[in-house]
Amino acid sequence: MAASPPAPVTEPLLELRGVRTVFRTGSGDVPAVDDVTLELGHGRVMAIIGESGSGKSALLRTILGIQPPTARESGEILLDGRDLLTLSKKARADTRGRLVSMVFQDPMTALDPVFTVEEQLVETLRRHLPLGRAEARRRALELLELVQIPAAASRLKAYPFEMSGGMRQRVVIAMALACEPALLLADEPTTALDVTVQAKILDLVREIQRERRMGVLIVTHDLAVAAAIADDVGVMYAGRLVEYGPVEKVILEPGHPYTRGLLAANVLPGQQTRPRSIPGAPPSLQRLPPGCAFAPRCDVATVECWERQPPQVTTGPGTWSRCLHAQELVGVPVPQAGLRPDHPTPTTPRENSRVRT
Ligand SMILES: Nc1ncnc2c1ncn2[C@@H]1O[C@H](COP(=O)(O)OP(=O)(O)OP(=O)(O)O)[C@@H](O)[C@H]1O
Ligand SMILES: [Mg+2]
Q1: Are residues 190 and 52 both part of a single domain?
Q2: Which ligand is located closest to the Cα atom of residue 72?
Q3: How far apart are CA 156 and CA 79, in angstroms?
């Protein structure tokens, strides 16, 4: 019998290798993103969590290619195998909207107050796709229906200021989805919304993402949001990824003291006890300590932690932590943490796993 052909290698949709973003400022260099390596498979959702200033937005802006000229970017950002950092400015701009698009935290920054929703959607569609005006209008209506805007036809004629915050964010999501990008970046997309609207928007993103097998990288400081939407979670601290893995593993059995601190600090629905904030503050990115950046705030840090950068320690299948004490932490319950991932643990092999022959 002939040998069966080798199993195909499933390329991830997005692969970051050693990505760094350093801003040049009057007071010195700011390494906002430092040596970030991760993989996002087709049809997967990854949440990036971390405190304010940890580099979450800087990471998304670097992937989208919208950093100011003061930013020096290095490493590799492979989208379907093509390194975005090697593209010309024009080729890079061409990917935005069409291959990669972004939903920003504040819908008003993405919408122009002087144009109607229809004008803005039609403009976005026609910039990237060979559509006539009538066809683009029809697509605009379909997009508003896709994001479940009631009375979509009349909303097309509205100006952004005539809509509620939740409706505006739906329009922004519709714009981001207009050209059916393979990768959607979402920077705190629901932070400005109240909790019920937030839940509806997250459900919507998840539903559309599943239907289109889109990859989503979502930034949030809220673990409940990550638990509700993500398959995988990356935890960022001082510009670096410090823990990474499937959401249920990272949230239920964190292997980094910082993740544990975030969990204990999170306010959860129905929680009886007061959340405990992480003592101290994140370090200045311009004066990072020589060892682990979290050591000054960490209750399990030892002398070694202050002296050298922690290596990446495997804490389970597909899970790692940059902590010398990771193995001791995994499995130790986190006080007050009662989060549960909102969706079932995947039972099929991870879509981004590589089959090597
Ligand atoms: N254009 C810039 N020039 C100089 N420094 C910058 C620039 N953009 C971001 N930074 C710095 O990079 C660091 C990371 O910022 P970033 O906006 O990515 O944080 P974040 O994790 O998104 O925080 P937040 O949760 O508050 O949105 C901060 O110290 C910030 O001051
Ligand atoms: Mg941000």
Answers
A1: yes
A2: 1
A3: 33
Same domain, 172 and 318: no
- Tens digit of each residue's pLDDT (9 = 90 or more) over 27-58: 999 999 999 999 999 999 999 999 999 999 99
Rounded to a whole number, what is the distance in angstroms from the first to the last CA of the chain? 19
Q: State the ligand closest to the CA atom of 288.
A: 1
**Are residues 316 and 294 both part of a single domain?**
yes
Rounded distance between C-alpha atoms, residue 346 and residue 315, angstroms: 19
Asked whether residue 232 falls in the same domain as residue 311, the answer is yes
Residue 349: half-sphere exposure toward Cβ, Cα within 13 Å: 5
Pick the residue whose CA is nearest to atom 12 on ligand 1.
32
Backbone phi and psi for residue 247, each to the nearest 5 degrees, phi listed first: -55, -40
Ligand 1: which atom is nearest the Cα of residue 221?
Answer: 25
User: Count of CB atoms within 10 A of residue 129's CB?
Assistant: 15
Do 191 and 315 belong to one domain? yes
The pTM score is 0.88
pLDDT tens digits, one per residue of 81-126 = 999 999 999 999 989 988 999 998 777 778 999 999 999 999 999 9
Ligand 1 atom closest to the CA of 219, numbered from 1:
22
Residues 50 and 191 in one domain: yes
Cα(243)–Cα(234) distance, rounded to whole angstroms? 6
Q: What is the distance in A from the centroid of ligand 1 to the CA of 285?
A: 10
Provide the number of structural domains found in the chain: 2
- Domain span holding position 54: 40-66+90-99+185-266+286-336
Select from 160, 180, 200 the last residue of a domain. 180
Probe residue for ligand 1, chosen from 23, 70, 241 as the CB with the greatest number of ligand atoms within 8 Å: 23
